[in-house]
Write a structure and sequence with these properties.
This protein has 175 residues and is an alpha+beta fold. The protein has one domain: Gcn5-related N-acetyltransferase (GNAT) (Aminopeptidase), CATH 3.40.630. The protein is built from 5 helices and 7 strands. The protein has a 7-stranded mixed β-sheet with strand order 1-2-3-4-5-7-6, with helices on both faces.
Length: 175
């Protein structure tokens, strides 16, 4: 994988490479993500998920993207929970990079590009994110992109049979 990083809106044709990455990275991601049904890891399951994401995009609630290195899909970045009302204007960033491309700066560059989308295209004022308390690599990505931790969401995600805490992050855009 090269060092160039780009993001773009997800497309149904991204389903096969996403499914292949998710199958290959299943064990590595198990510690960071909730369990998924078997269909999630198939191209057909990804097409269904992408269709739902694009439907959410059409209604303005989500900006679902893929991360590219040298025009190859290496992960996803999504701005979800978009609240475009003039008195709120915020969204939450989530992302993953395939193990084949980790440690090369793609996550940090993708988050930076997503922040530009949030500001320039979506007109948002505030970016939010959350990480597992133990996910230090993701926390470094957020810090490098100007995020600051602001709290702990207690028992916020059901993961591996128990409720886990998450570290909450924020960044004011345009500053």
């Amino acid at each position: 994988m090269g060092n160039s990083t780009a993001i773009r809106l997800i497309e149904p044709t991204d389903a096969a490479p996403i499914a292949a990455h998710r199958v290959r990275d299943l064990e590595a991601f198990r510690r960071w993500e909730p369990a998924q049904p078997a269909g999630f890891f198939t191209p057909e399951g990804q097409v269904e998920r992408i269709d739902r994401l694009l439907a959410g995009h059409r209604t303005g609630g989500v900006w679902p993207g893929v991360v590219l290195a040298d025009d190859q899909v290496i992960g996803q970045i999504t701005v979800g929970g978009i609240l475009p009302q003039p008195h709120l204007r915020r969204g939450s960033v989530g992302y993953w990079i395939t193990g084949l491309a980790q440690g090369q700066g793609h996550a940090g560059r993708a988050v930076g590009l997503a922040l530009r989308v949030m500001t320039d295209e979506l007109g948002l004022h505030r970016a939010e994110a959350s990480t597992h308390l133990e996910n230090l690599p993701s926390q470094r990505v957020l810090r490098r992109n100007g995020f600051s931790p602001y709290g702990v969401a207690h028992s916020s995600i059901l993961f591996d049979g128990s409720w886990r805490d998450g570290l909450l992050w924020e960044r004011i855009l345009g500053e």
